[in-house]
Amino acid sequence: MTTTDISAPAAGKAGTTPVPKRRPKRESQGPAWVFLSPWVLGAIVLTLLPMAVSLYLSFTDYDLFNPPRWVGLRNYVQMFTEDPRYWRSVMTTLTYVVIAVPLQLALALGVALALKSMKRGKGFYRSAFYAPSLLGASMSIALVWRAIFNDGGTVDNLLGTGGWVNKPGWALLAVALLTVWQFGAPMVIFLAGLQQIPGELYEAAAVDGAGKWRQFLSVTVPMLSPVLFFNLVLQTIQAFQVFTPAFAIGAGKGGPADSTLVYTLYLYDRGFVASHMGYASAMAWVLLIVIGAVTAVLFRTSRSWVFYASEGDR
Amino acid sequence: MTTTTTPVVRKPVAWGRIALHVGCLAALLVMLYPLAWLLATSLKPADEVIASLNLLPSHLEWSNYKTALDGVNDVSIWRLLSNSLLIAGGAVLGNVISCSLAAYAFARLRFRFRGPLFAFMIATIMLPHHAVLIPQYIIFNQLGLVNTYWPLILPKFLATEAFFVFLIVQFMRGLPRELEEAARIDGCGPFRSFFRIVLPLTRPALITTAIFTFIWTWNDFFTQLIYLFDPEKFTLTLALRSFVDASSTSAFGPMFALSVIALMPIVLFFLAFQRLLVEGMASSGLKG
Hints:
The structure holds two protein chains of two kinds.
Chain A: H1 10-13, H2 30-57, E1 60-61, E2 69-70, H3 74-82, H4 84-116, H5 122-135, H6 139-148, H7 154-159, H8 171-181, H9 184-195, H10 199-207, H11 212-240, H12 244-249, H13 263-273, H14 277-305
Antiparallel strand pairs in A: 1-2
Helix pairs in contact in A: 4-8, 4-9, 4-11, 4-13, 5-9, 9-11, 10-11, 11-14, 13-14
Chain B: H1 15-41, H2 63-70, H3 77-108, H4 114-126, H5 130-142, H6 150-153, H7 162-173, H8 178-185, H9 190-201, H10 203-219, H11 222-227, H12 236-241, H13 252-285
């Protein structure tokens, strides 16, 4: 990306270009700021300022009606040492992320590989598998999901599970499966990535005697790694913020026995149900830091396994 | 017995390919089952909803839809529908205008701190919504705008959904610069060149933005849940919420009839624009 060449006006290149052709006069920056003004206003008033305010509030006791009262680190101390429900929500979310994200990406990659070499029907399958990604985010489907996985629902009738929705050990799996079901978006991105791998690479590998599996490991995986990385980061960040399916399947309270009490649901409960805005702000900041840390770790490890083909060309 | 000696004349039956299609169709059947179940259940009489393996109802119970059309909490369905449409429509307008303006500046204009600001804009894609949610709520609360549609629409006019800014930037970068350079020589300023040249060429990205914004806003639950509490102002999604804690199965039919109604616009958008949606999603992951 060349986004950082802010200091390279056309004049700088004149020395290397043999013909100093029509080079535009250096125009003023005024118009740019006019175009940017809505974004700048939004970034300040709806992003930066709220982040600062929520950091401040996280050190206070605030119920929306009385002025915030400074309590120092109390919210954080309470969160980490005195609130078992908080840890419950942390563990629930981590379990959910660890189940849902790998399953979803594996399914997305598997289906993308199956569709890759298809001559007929590829477009149809691509659209059909993508449909749940759009519909599944709705309350409608979350309610369907609850009914299907409930006592007497389809899954119970087929597997004799007795309804996962009411079983503390199983309800979260139902939530995770709803996310896995929406593998269409990463699948579409995988498929587009697969189609950009030049066919010659496979031909060359085949000439060298590489079988299908070897080709997958030595050609597909490295060439696809940037896309895999993109999907992994995006889906992980989104999974940390899951709300609607957990809300619907856990009957609005993260039930049964807090087994579907994901982090954002508990944050909603503390902030908007119990009116502990300071506590909820502290929770929001911990979430921000955790997501930032997880992303940073993913970026760090990516250096050893993500391969950018264009690096060699430059 | 002699197959090994005779040269192959006919093409061999592509068993692998057939197996692939059978596998894909089987997977599709499983995946689309919940949608079929939803449609079937919305037409089932109350006593057949649960504990029946039959997907198809014994007879079509249209009264479920009649009940659903009566509305929820004494609010008519037309009210709920128009509330949803108003919010989604406002969001679409806001995102298309504000995101395309910002994207043009990032993609084509020079200004100080462009690099850092662009990096910041990308970073906000990853920012969890909850980090800004509570202060935003407090701000709107101070302004007396909670329980109105402003908190749901106004942020879209300020390009807060950086994902779309990024999408449009990526698209604009693919446009030939020569057109604008030619226009500039003819005396076209950045504003004319934006409205006359760049914006019309960016139409595919703008349509993708509009459709995704509509679908995501329509489906959004969390923001509507915290900002709206007057049943008169509820959206279809929020009206469905009142079924979340209800445990009685008697309301199942009407509840799923309402679910079908709430899904209809998304299904229609999907059927009409599936190509665009799928390609918009694919291109967002590449070139990035």
